Amino acid sequence: MMKYISTRDNKLNMSAAQAIAKGLAPDGGLMTPERFPHLEADAITRLKDMSYQQRAVYVMKQFLDDFSTQELEGFAAAAYGGGKFSHADVAPVHSVDGDTWCLELWHGPTCAFKDMALQMLPHLLSTSLVKNREDKTVCILVATSGDTGKAALEGFRDVDRTRILVFYPKDGVSAIQELQMNTQEGRNVGVCSVVGNFDDAQTGVKRLFSDRELAGQLAGRGYFLSSANSINWGRVLPQVVYYISAYCDLVKSGAVKEGREINVCVPTGNFGNILAGYYAKKMGLPIKKLICASNSNNVLTDFIRTGVYDRNRTFYNTMSPSMDILISSNLERMLYELSGGNDGEVRGYMEQLNAAGRYEVGGEIRAKLEELFAAGCCDDARTAQVIGKMWKDRGYLIDPHTAVAFDVLEQYRAQTGDKTPALVVSTASPFKFCSSVLPALGVDELREGVGILDQLSQVTGVEAPAPLAGLKEKAVRFDGVIEKEHMVDCVLDMLK
Ligand SMILES: *Cc1c(COP(=O)(O)O)cnc(C)c1O
Fold first, then answer.
1. Is ligand 1 within 6 A of the CB of residue 390?
2. 25 alpha carbon, distance to own chain's centre
3. Residue nearest (by alpha carbon) to ligand 1 atom 1
4. Is the pLDDT of residue 146 over 80?
5. Long-range contacts, stretch 56-59, CB < 8 angstroms, 24+ apart
6. Residues 434, 176: contact at Cβ < 8 Å?
7. For the CA atoms of 409, 414, 416, 421, what is the dihedral angle to 10 degrees?
8. pTM higher than 0.90, yes or no?
9. What is the CA radius of gyration of the chain?
10. Which of 401, 408, 431 to mutate to test the pocket of ligand 1 (most atoms within 8 A of CB)?
């Protein structure tokens, strides 16, 4: 059976079902497969004619040997089939020019790439509970600054043995994001806004997780608390699938000859998406460079270039808010890889990060980082230029996160002369970020509320995705506003 081990202690191990149910290792490390399966020689040839759902089963089965193929087929159908994704290919590849393609990961129910994993995780989690003989119902608590909360609500809605409660900062999300959450349907969902900013909501949720009295009370009612954040293996694994799927599509369309290398460029925050790309490469997918794209919060650019990770720097609120992050949690799994599975070394770096906000990796890790990765960053002014230029030159409408990646790819190509065909990962629909996209197209007077969706449609002739366009007709189900001291009452109230 495949074992999962902690990045901070090799001796700590568990099954996939246990790793997914726990989320985090008891020592604070991240649960990671002890070995990586290699793609079979004919894998691409076989997968190329399969649906996205079948590709997902094939890839995930190799890591989840305590789940049956039949179980995984059921999950893939529920997560990616049944009209949940507006595109038949689920994660289609769009041709941008002769040697650049864009992998669109935002055709899911909430129009951001978080859907790719959060549509799958709830099924993995609820089945893991059965396998682990857990008799309680899990209640997922989420503090969100926007995208994750809605994607988690939509993923967990009406999934057996799960409840979900999302807290968002009253003044910290866009009008559209707020409406997306407050109109959420489902029998097992709850949403509440918290007076304050994202930090207040997040600190409040952390306090709930460490509240022993609350845990005791909930256990008496048949519940336990868990989180759905991006360090859970059940969120990383579904992301490996779309890299392999995209390569299959490139081969199938004749764009790339089978076996030929490609570069991938990923707009990065918590390092979960690009880490999945690295794992695909480790499994044998012909990826040459992983190009890590950041906005002005460029802590990863500096790390990849110098080997020094230093979070002691100014924090910027940018127009690509899902990448406004100074601690990239999933980087810990990458350090584990680069150090050759040296748990003590990883533990040391994480202790330094915790104590001083800084660490510097050794020469060997630096050399490997340089070989595998390239990195660059792009500020808001350039991001807007790229959105405008992409629309004007190619009639292709992109969101700010995706624009950051296009810019960094261009910088990389100019600096290195590397002509390898490249895949840019697109992480959100431009309609999720109308108030940044419209000004980038030269429109200065913006409409209020959901009217801004129609405005972007009228300016571009591009239709808004149905889940966003449909918000106008949805009834508001949640309008609670609470002080952060009262979050515990909200949990007790929901789990009566
Ligand atoms: C979450 C998110 C990212 C960052 O992904 P990571 O896996 O955290 O690196 C980028 N773009 C969008 C739109 C996101 O929602």
1. no
2. 20
3. 322
4. no
5. 56/80, 56/120, 56/238, 56/241, 56/245, 59/237, 59/240, 59/241, 59/244
6. yes
7. 50
8. yes
9. 22
10. 401
